[in-house]
Sequence to fold (146 residues):
Amino acid sequence: MIKSYRGLLADDGQERIRLGTPNGKTGYRIVKFEVISTTPGATADESVVKIYKLEQTAVDATIDFSDSTLLGCGYWSGATSSGSPATMNIIFESEIFNQDIYITHKNASGATPGDTACNFYLELEQIKLNEVEALVSIVKNLRTEQ
Fold:
């Protein structure tokens, strides 16, 4: 089963997607992730949207693939009136997780914080986990938090 989520993130915004279950036997994997500005073509936005396993204390535009809590990221560079084409780069893990995830947005164009927002669309494949798989996923999450 595929579950989809969409939303609007303010600059420096963070949203929690609730996925955790009492027994942890439902896992998820990212199958699609897309981002787009709220005003494509109107401004030269550069947005960085990231998906994390843990809530972030600060939102930034730095992409660090050595961060074990990072599940995926998207970069959107909007078209301007001069005709520059829009760009979207998306990279995500195929890792299975069974806890809540967090999506952050940071405008990297140097705009005044709060001036821009970004839409996201996320599809997660729902996977039935047996007891061992659920336990492994929970332990991985606990190890990541430390």
User: Anything to note?
Assistant: The chain has a mean pLDDT of 85. Helices lie at 131-145. The chain has one helix and eight strands.
